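Thread: Modeling a multi-component assembly for a lab meeting

Hi all, long-time lurker, first post. My supervisor asked me to bring a structural picture of a complex we are working on to next week's group meeting, and I have zero experience with this. I have the sequence lines for every component (610 residues in total). Could someone generate the structure of the whole assembly? Inputs are pasted exactly as I received them:
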Amino acid sequence: MANTVLDTTPHEAGHGDPSRRDFIHIAAAAGAVGALGAAVWPLVDQMNPSGDVLALASIEFDLSKVMEGQQVVVKWQGKPVFVRYRTAKEIAEAVKDDNASLKDPATDASRHKDGKAQWLILVGVCTHLGCVPNFGGGSFGGWLCPCHGSIYDTSGRIRSGPAPRNLDLPEYAFLSDTKVKIG
Amino acid sequence: MSGQHSTYEPKTGFTRWLDSRLPIIRLGWDSFIDFPTPKNLNYWWTFGGVLAMCLGIQIATGVVLAMHYTPDAGLAFNSVEHIMRDVNHGWMIRYIHATGASMFFLAVYIHMLRGVYYGSHKAPREILWILGCVIYLLMMATGFMGYVLPWGQMSYYGAVVITNLFGAFPIIGKGVTTWLWGGFAVDNPTLNRFFSLHYLLPFMIAGVVVLHIWALHVPGNNNPTGVNVKSKEDTIPFHPYYTVKDGFAMVCFLILFAVFVFFMPDALGHADNYVPANPLQTPAHIVPEWYFLPFYAILRAVPDKLTGVLAMFGAVGVLFALPWIDHSKVRSMRYRPAAKLFFIIFVLVCVGLGFCGANPPDKPLFGDGGIGFTLGDANLNSFVWLSRFLTAYYFAFFGILFVLGFVEKPLPVPDSISTPALSEKKG
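Re: Modeling a multi-component assembly
Sure thing. I ran the full set together rather than chain by chain. Output:
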């Protein structure tokens, strides 16, 4: 007797109001997906740079160590940064090519700080696949990447080869005439 | 596994007791002892066994090497030298592991080409083929990450170039590479995670190998005629016939393996990898290991960065679709003269692409640069143009296979596996 009553009541309720059961199914599934996502996200995000890696965001460099025509490579965020003391001839060549046919057009003036045309500070990572270009190679007086033959000019602009962009400029600021803060 | 009647009969009290609780001996018996196998399998079919052996060797030597290796950017290079100089038998174990990677890829390429030639990817073996492609992808990931672990110059710049490939994708590229590196460049966090994954993936490969063998044992082996097994006359038991044949092939393969390990252990590597990683100086000429050279050549053949990356991934991805691209009713190319010709060219093209990948792109093919003229962005007489032609054929081959499925007139196919063996010497 009691069984019959218990059997029919939810049955009829189910027929009369199917959306309540559907709602519970959908809510349960959505909750499970949300919980799974919340559990998986830390396992994915742990691979992103950790706090101590992010803390090494900036360095200071003493420019008096660099002679005219010389390049010093410093490590910043694990990457090489080229600090180049350019000669007047190199600056002139770079300015002359401002209107040449460039893959990634940029004027030389946009690639150094105002009044500091002699200091070219670049991220020394080829924009193709990340190798370190060598200074003095290539036909534009700048850098040649040994991996796939990208050639950069005296302003670090891409002139030939598979790299899509000019060498990146790091964020930097002159603290004094001889001191620069990179990052 | 094959759904056929099992012939295993437990003989002792213990095996009867075990068989009614966990029929694991029955599983092994049905899979590797009494498994009915086509009687005409040739030596190209022995590479499955060779590959299982290679996986076993890599896991055994790898577990041992991990007991002495230190996954730290400051210590990794020296710990490898410690293995080479101080650890008992360390030099041999490491050379077996390093050479083993090359041997593994050599065997897998033969195994895959055998599959394409004899139509082993066609119905009802599509899943078997796709699982094989998954194993190959996992092998490439494992091989790449293992090569990074010694933290030499080639290790480091190999990691730089390969991880930068993901940077070619718009919008997500930069975030993905930073996530892969765990920093702003390849560094200690990258090395640590590569070690973790290099240890994990071989066991995942082993898992997929189990599925691969399962999927093999449902339809059973294909065979050189490509004709289905029709009667019991067409098959012989796996043991002793193929255990002995596979065993003999393994011994021959191990001789080649030993020649490399003991007489020219560094022949397949690069001298630059005995220089510790220097993030500030790229070596003059970087190349991947030989087994990645064809894909590297495809990458460099395309002038646009993203398109090049897509072409390289596509060269592997197209293999997954092969069962539907190559839709000819005749399985074995033994009876497909046109397909056979294009297949042989394809094999030569793959070798040629490997040759291109090993050479600088702007190097002239003939002479010292005086010959030839500039076409587009490079001299026609250069490896970059050769690799463009070969890349074009690599992809065209799959289109040709698709078209041949409609237009090719195949040779007469024997009625059964037993027919050609009885009526003529060579099928």
